[in-house]
Design brief:
mainly beta; Jelly Rolls; eight-stranded antiparallel sheet; 0% helix
């Protein structure tokens, strides 16, 4: 594998699989590249909610906006510059407010094949 740099414009955004809300993902690196992780961007429109039991370890970096992540031990609010780790097996509810959010993510293993 070679060293590469990415920006949001490099991502082809598509509706997050299995979701009906306005939550979009754009993988940039994944198993097709021979990488052990998936790296990409996420775009969350305002007032979206994703209820999920994490199938993979997911690290989300908030680039713009605010997200709240509710889990069985409480809730965290994350804004631009914050990083949220959601461990595999953890049930979470991720919500955006009035401004939506843009994120970058790294998952291990690959989230689409989990």
């Amino acid at each position: 594998m070679k060293v590469r740099k990415f920006s949001l414009e490099d991502a082809t955004m598509e509706r997050s699989p299995g979701q009906s809300g306005a939550i979009f993902t754009g993988d940039l690196v994944n198993d097709r590249d021979g990488a052990p992780v998936t790296i990409g961007y996420g775009r969350w429109e305002p007032f979206q909610t994703l209820e999920e039991t994490m199938a993979v370890d997911d690290v989300m970096i908030i680039l713009t906006g605010v997200l709240s992540v509710t889990h069985d031990e409480g809730q965290v609010a994350a804004s631009a510059g914050d990083i949220v780790h959601m461990p595999k097996g953890r049930k979470v509810s991720i919500r955006t407010g009035s401004e939506g959010a843009t994120t970058a993510y790294v998952t291990y293993p690959h989230w689409r094949t989990a």
